[in-house]
Amino acid sequence: MDGLMMDFPLNLNYILQRAHKLFPRKEIATKVGSAMHRYTYADFYERVNRLAHVLDSLGVGPGDRVGTFAWNTYRHLEAYFAIPCKGSVLHTLNIRLFPEQIVYIINHAADKVILVDQTLLPLLEKLAGRLPTVKHYIVMADGAYQTTLTPHSSYEQLLRDAPSGRYAWPEIPENQAAAMCYTSGTTGNPKGVLYSHRAIVLHSFSECMADSVGLTERDTVMPVVPMFHANAWGLPFSATMVGSRQVYPGPHLQPRDLAELIQEEKITVAAGVPTIWLGLYHLLERERYDISSLRVMPVGGSAAPRSMIEGYQKKLGATILHAWGMTEMTPIGTVSQLKSHMLSWPEDEQFAIRAKQGVMVPGVELRGVDNEGKEIPWDGQIMGELQVRGPWIIREYYHEPNSSASFMDGWFRTGDVVTIDPEGYIQIVDRTKDLVKSGGEWISTVDLENQIMGHPKVLEAAVIAVSHPKWQERPLACVVPKPDFKDHLTGEEILEYLRSRVARWWLPDDVVFIESVPKTSVGKFDKKVLRERFKNHILPDM
Ligand code: ADP
């Protein structure tokens, strides 16, 4: 039709060129050993050009997949842009998966080249004999290294030898693939998610909105969430788009490392899963660090316990921003910001809202659907499966013939069970497969866990379903006491604490104490392992 707007492709080249033109002096810093590697966006741009030349010289063409097996570093960021901006596909590999899964994923994606961090060489070397599609390994090392991978080259040497002239960046249609990531596959094989340029650019716009994460040029952003976990929630892309200062922790993810980085680098936005921030919280309870630079800590990947949100706010003055998303969603779906009329609410009610997963961000549409396929009302009570649609949500899994079960009338079925309140805030009640189905009613294990983790003597808690002769399933609480209370915490204390906080029939039938809650490759509670361990647990008669 006449009189319409330009057909301007939303691609990552646009973000890269913008950053190069506007922010050449901004810094990108990475923790390397006990020191920091620092350079500017101008240096970054120069190296991104060189990396694109290098990939050409290795025969990496349009649409070819290039794997990265790496921590959060400036080199990984270079790969984040050089690969998609030259028309190939950035495939971030989750270094924490089982070897079998990594082999499956690399073969399924048919990666042609893999960029690997020196410290991760031993992991990859064990698998190399089973990766027929990989034609070349590029080792990202700070000095000399040794490897059995063949053929291999040094990243730094390749960059030094590459032409220094500007790369002729192609014009990339916005619906071309830019990146891919496999879900960790709690059941069955991992499934591939292919992100388009358009999806990532629109997601970046949304992430930078003030009512979302709200990144700005004034921010110093530290993605603690791995760059192999849903593109570190898109932060490397959106931070580059708006020219934030960026800080990458490398492999240094212990609470003390993070506390030092926040203090020394004056981080304003630090993003990670709840387990990371729980660990930091317990350090900050004991030792003083200045974390006053923090403006917001986006937390997602699993439920942020209300006690943690409250603790950070009241004791440390730091604001946690609860968000929900999925690998299949580039990944952000909802963010929990208070609406203006809630600012005058009592503190207790405000925290209740902030502990929910929030409202759909602009660009995402959501609904809850019950067992019969009917949409649930927004009453904050009735549970249903969360379904979503939007320009950064997958249409199908990559080369996966059985994708259709994950979709319903053009909506993606998330597998999460939610309630939606009248203000539109969703609360993740559970994952469908984790719910305790007790006598036909559902008990939210997430809710129970969050309550238990509010107990002052508890470090972590996971609740699982255990089979029960009468009720079909009943909850079992697996609790990790804080080190000071090891052997000084009883199951009865936990149950007593819960009695005033949850419905009577929700009370766990038993409490067991464990050393630690097993974690998945991306730091979530691995209830599969606990279910297996306690599958024959005999519940006491209640
Ligand atoms: P995986 O499926 O490998 O765990 P994802 O990181 O994509 O990988 O997981 C997405 C899932 O994580 C969601 O479907 C949901 O169950 C859970 N999740 C993400 N954010 C939250 C949150 N804020 N609260 C509760 N659960 C969450």
Folded structure, characterized:
- By secondary structure, the chain is α/β, with parallel strands linked by helices.
- Among the domains are: 13-166 and 173-253, 3-Layer(aba) Sandwich (Rossmann fold); 436-533, ANL, C-terminal domain (GMP Synthetase, Chain A, domain 3, 2-Layer Sandwich), CATH 3.30.300.
- It is built from 16 helices and 26 strands.
- A seven-stranded mixed β-sheet has the order 7-6-5-3-4-8-9.
- Helix 7 (197-207) packs across helix 9.
- It is globular, with a radius of gyration of 23 Å.
- The model has no long low-confidence stretch (mean pLDDT 95).
- Bound molecules: adenosine-5'-diphosphate (ADP).
Q: What do we call the CATH homologous superfamily of the domain at 13-166 and 173-253?
A: ANL, N-terminal domain
Count of DSSP-assigned helices? 16
How much helix, percentage-wise, in residues?
25-40%
CATH architectural designation of the domain at 13-166 and 173-253: 3-Layer(aba) Sandwich
Strand count: 26
Overall pLDDT score: 95
Structural class assignment: alpha/beta
- Please summarize the sheet with the most strands: 7 strands, mixed
Beta fraction: 15-25%
Oligomer: single chain
Distance between the termini: 71 Å
Gyration radius, rounded: 23 Å
| Overall geometry | globular
Instruction: Give the class-level CATH name of the domain at 13-166 and 173-253.
Output: Alpha Beta
The name CATH uses for the topology of the domain at 13-166 and 173-253 is: Rossmann fold
Strand order of the largest sheet: 7-6-5-3-4-8-9
| List of distinct ligands in this structure | adenosine-5'-diphosphate
The poorly predicted ranges are none
